[in-house]
């Protein structure tokens, strides 16, 4: 099985990543007797031809060695998976964070080994703990038995890939116990860009215009009184042609200010999907009276998809294709930290 996983990982690595990744692999580290096995290998050959040569030089390779290389690949290609954000209901002080990846691995393995035969690898990368869990159910490697997770220490944020339905409850409970986190709740926030999901969930209240303060792009404190806020950021000035008369210049300036106050000048976090599920009473009784009489909620779904939906909405307003100011359910998306939003009837004060 380890040979199959090793082959799968090496084939997926790009040519310019191959040598650098192999040198980070603990099986080939300077502190391991196998160090130096890269010397004499012709890395210009095809990866399929390189694999048998490399495998012969690596003595006693174990499944956890191949799993570690797979995790190294995932550090560089996290966008190959769909990730979902989970939040803990509570964290008990600093108990939610083991000081080292090794300690975190031991706690997580202890929570899971009563239920499964498994391999767990944990690495620290960009101030987060990256986890790979593989559950053995057969002698052959099964990709859907692999779960990847990213945990940001001292925060309630845990980001996971898809989990097999039969294993889901055990794995979520194991993470909850490891983090001393009470319950873990799945959020309606998912996508391929892990860094954007982390940004939206960790910095929920400093998106849009307030991102300037988080990124240190203004001169003074937002709470300071008396002085007018000065911006360090230089906004792009639109070059106007003197030969052309712009009749809607005031409208363009107004739109620019609204978008600046709503989204700020920084590029928006990358979300590939934004979905609205509507469960409201039907309000078009004049057009369709038979719908208006129904007591059941009128259900429909609207989905936006693209490379960066938030940036796309901003550009629609900039180009004049969207009416400004944007409705709250569009303007507040970055601060909601959701890309699946359910719109329902407003509840009365008596309810």
From TrEMBL:
GO process terms (BP): CENP-A containing chromatin assembly; chromosome segregation
Main location: nucleus
Transmembrane segments annotated in the record for this chain: none
InterPro entries: CENP-NAC/CAD_complex, Chl4/mis15/CENP-N
Subcellular location: Chromosome, Centromere; Nucleus
Keywords: Centromere, Chromosome, Nucleus
Highest taxon listed in the record's lineage: Eukaryota
Protein name as annotated: Centromere protein N
Species this chain originates from: Lingula anatina
């Amino acid at each position: 099985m380890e040979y199959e996983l090793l082959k799968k990982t090496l084939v997926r690595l790009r040519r310019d990543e191959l040598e650098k990744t192999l040198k980070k692999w603990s099986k080939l580290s300077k502190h391991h007797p196998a160090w130096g096995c890269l010397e004499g290998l012709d890395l210009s050959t095809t990866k399929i031809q390189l694999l048998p040569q490399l495998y012969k030089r690596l003595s006693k390779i174990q499944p956890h060695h191949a799993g570690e290389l797979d995790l190294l690949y995932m550090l560089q290609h996290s966008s190959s998976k769909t990730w979902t954000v989970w939040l803990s209901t509570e964290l008990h002080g600093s108990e939610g964070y083991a000081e080292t990846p090794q300690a975190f691995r031991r706690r997580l393995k202890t929570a899971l080994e009563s239920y499964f035969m498994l391999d767990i690898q944990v690495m620290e990368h960009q101030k987060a703990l990256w986890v790979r869990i593989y559950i053995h159910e057969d002698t052959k490697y099964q990709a859907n038995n692999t779960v990847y997770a990213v945990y940001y220490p001292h925060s309630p944020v845990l980001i996971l890939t898809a989990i097999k339905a039969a294993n889901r409850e055990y794995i979520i409970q194991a993470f909850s116990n490891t983090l001393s986190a009470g319950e873990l709740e799945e959020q309606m926030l998912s996508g391929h860009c892990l860094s954007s999901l982390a940004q939206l969930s960790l910095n929920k209240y400093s998106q849009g215009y307030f991102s300037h303060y988080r990124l240190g792009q203004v001169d003074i404190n937002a709470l300071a009184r008396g002085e007018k806020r000065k911006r360090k950021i230089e906004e792009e000035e639109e070059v106007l042609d003197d030969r052309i008369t712009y009749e809607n210049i005031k409208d363009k300036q107004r739109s620019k200010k609204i978008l600046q106050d709503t989204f700020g000048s920084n590029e928006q976090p990358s979300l590939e999907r934004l979905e609205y599920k509507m469960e409201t009473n039907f309000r078009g009784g004049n057009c369709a009276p038979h719908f208006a009489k129904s007591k059941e909620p009128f259900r429909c779904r609207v989905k936006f998809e693209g490379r960066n939906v938030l940036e796309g909405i901003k550009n629609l307003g900039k180009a004049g294709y969207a009416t400004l100011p944007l409705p709250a359910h569009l303007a507040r998306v970055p601060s909601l930290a959701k890309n699946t939003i359910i719109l329902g009837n407003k509840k009365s004060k008596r309810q």
